[in-house]
Amino acid sequence: MIVREGDRIRLFAVIKLSDVPGCNPELNDAFDVRIRVTFPGRVISQQNGTLDGQTVTWSLPPGEQTGIEAVAEAGAGQADGFPMGPAIGALLAVTLVALVLAVRRRSGTPG
What we know:
- The protein contains one helix and seven strands; from the N terminus they run βββββββα.
- With 111 residues, the chain is α+β, with helices and mostly antiparallel strands.
- It has one domain.
- β5 and β6 (55-60) form a beta hairpin.
């Protein structure tokens, strides 16, 4: 979830890759799942990720649950009420769908 708190933006989520349907634990080492978010202003703090400028990247181990969090300045030109929550939610959904499709494709038998 992303919320605006005054002149700051706060992102926080718990991403659970242990419940991905069709996930074969034997294939966990074959996947590299990452979430990368670039904030409109300076990143003040982050947890469980790596910081490069205004971008925080989290590597998510398949088969595990990972908490991600970051706080950044809203930055100049950031409009109040910008629907960032749904945008990040959509990004996370696309990431999980891609993961599920990749797992299913790798675990399928060759034609």
